[in-house]
Amino acid sequence: MNFDLTEEQQMLQETVGQLLANECPVTRLREVFDSDTGFDESLWKGLGELGILGLNVPEDFGGAGLETLDLAVVAETMGYHAAPGPFLGHALAIEAIVSGGSEAQKKKWLPDLASGARIGAVAIADSDGGWASGHWKIEPGDQVSGTQSFATGGQHADLFVVGLAGGRLGVVDAEAAGFSRQSVDGADLTRRLVALEFDRTPCELLADDDAQAARRLHDVGCVLLAADAFGGSVRLLEMSVEYAKTREQFGVKIGHFQALKHQLASMALDVEPGRGLYWYAAYAQDHVADESERIAAVAKAHMTDRYMDVARNAVEAHGGIGFTWECDVQIWFKRAMFNRAFLGHPGEHRRRQAEMAGW
Known about the structure:
By secondary structure, the protein is an alpha+beta fold.
């Protein structure tokens, strides 16, 4: 039995990594990070040309028709490079339409989303801070009124999948009457947030009416955040090791100091087991239905917590300069903060896991 990625998945990861290394090296990443929009149009176009923006779109609608694990290994690479832009929200909007849309709705929206001609986003954070469908308060209908918070990538989105009461999902066009969006200040400037307001705004309800699409949207989001967290943790570990090999104190490289060696070894032990965890969580979404929700909660809680711990240790390994604006570590540190909070803090997911296990 093969417990590794397939050759095709490895090639996919390598191809995306090469694109990000070429199109968005750290020098370019800093420019986007410091910009008003946090969006790199050239990078987005490149992802579209590679077919990355439609990985989870069925082939009949212009996509690659791949599975959640394929999407997750791309998310890992995005996290490793701290890739800026609306990829997360776009992928989740597609997931919602694929899972919950009618054939006519899929035909209407998916081809443009797959090519990147239109950008999707999701708005599933209730104004009180709840992410799960049971917290959504906007009443479903042909028109909707209310607010949703923390839509990622929403500055650039052309359409939004919105969480509605009863676990329903609806699609709102960004050009629709009665719709407005407002930027939200956030630490992670690679993934910008907006708050949305609807005032009798036209909305097309997705065909799914039993909240299954909403559950899958939430769980796939947890898996992608876990994958992103793994990639970011690996990058921070590599940066810390490289710094230890070059920084000198008392006439020697700091990597010679036993305490720092132990710290770096501990970081590595925190990071590496997460690879198999997020792989299985992604695989379960398509192949192990009775475990998919639980393992998504486990992966989200564990990996985003580990990412935050590794980020703190990376700052310490850099002697405290890691969180200064001049040091690149701060970019990944802030991304770790985003991953930990978005779709709910680790404690919430551990509670979900315990409830599903009957504890």
